[in-house]
Design goal:
Blueprint (H helix, E strand, L loop, with lengths): L3 E4 L5 H11 L6 H9 L3 E7 L5 E9 L3 E9 L8 H12 L7 E7 L3 H9 L3 E6 L10 E6 L9
Parallel strand pairs: 4-5
Antiparallel strand pairs: 1-2, 2-3, 3-4, 5-7, 6-7
């Protein structure tokens, strides 16, 4: 699906919240999204349709040795159209100038579709966080992707 990828603004948060609520059993609060938008070490990207409808989003935050993929969600009506992949590829592009940091995330062990997506994007399972999710104490799979090597001049 052809979408325009751009930074999210505070004015996008009503739709971000709606997508979040339909996507997760324990959604982030508005204040959590607002905090991420304010942090200089965070990046929030939205995927907008040709009609300027927000179809999905991704939040990533920079830590000492990694970019932590904090939240990725796509509205039900737009799933399985490559939007999550496009968002993550854009995050990789935007952060490529920081070759010392890899990427990490947590995902529910039962979320097979998301795990397969992350694996296609180069993430590998590196461990478990037991009882990580508060709604049902489900384990989280910790996944890691190394930073892409920087091109060398010849």
């Amino acid at each position: 699906m052809n979408v325009q990828l751009r930074r999210l603004e505070r004015s996008d948060l009503d739709v971000v919240e709606a997508i979040e609520r339909e996507s997760y059993p324990t959604p982030w609060s508005r204040s959590m999204f607002e905090a991420e938008l304010r942090k200089p070490s965070s990046l929030a990207i939205g995927a907008f349709t040709k009609d300027d409808e927000l179809a999905g989003f991704a939040f990533v935050s920079r830590y000492v040795d990694a970019w932590h993929v904090m939240n990725v969600a796509v509205a039900h009506a737009y799933r399985r159209r490559g939007i999550a992949s496009a968002l993550l590829h854009r995050l990789f592009e935007v952060t490529a100038s920081d070759p010392r940091r890899g990427y990490t995330l947590e995902v529910r062990v039962s979320n097979v579709g998301a795990i397969q997506l992350y694996e296609r994007l180069g993430f590998e399972a590196r461990g478990l966080r037991r009882g990580y999710y508060t709604d049902n104490r489900e384990d989280a799979l910790i996944m890691w992707r190394d930073a892409l090597p920087t091109p060398t001049a010849s």
